[in-house]
Design goal:
160 residues, mainly alpha, globular
Length: 160
Amino acid sequence: MRLMRIFLAVISSSCLALTPAVAGQRGQHGTPRPASAQPVKSAAHPTPVAVPERIAANPALVTRLQPLLPPGMTIATAATGFKNQGQFIAALHVSRNLNIPFAQLKGAMTGADHDSLGQAIHELQPTANAKTAAETAERQARGDIKATGARKTDRDRGDR
């Protein structure tokens, strides 16, 4: 019985000793620490590169996408706001394939509601088969990425 009390006392004191260290990982009442106190990301988890910069880094992809852009619009302007390059490229293809103004499609996909590609197609062109149009555009986007040697990320594979 005496050994059990000693064991419980050691465990209790260990828990109490660790509490400040664990609590220091968050702010008061479990709220996240301010950004200035957040740990710096390691090389194993690099900061994601924004879509416009990723595409600009691949001249072959830029050349392939340029004809899909509306007149007077740059890749950087067009790609800003999209989650990943696959989503952006598929939106360019839908715009061309269905003759939907790119600015309207982009607004539906990156605006306050963040519609998926299929939802945006349905909203902007209700008579179109949104599922088939989205699948076709996504296949075209994958083809562009593959043909130009652009590296796909996990985000490009899963987001729509």
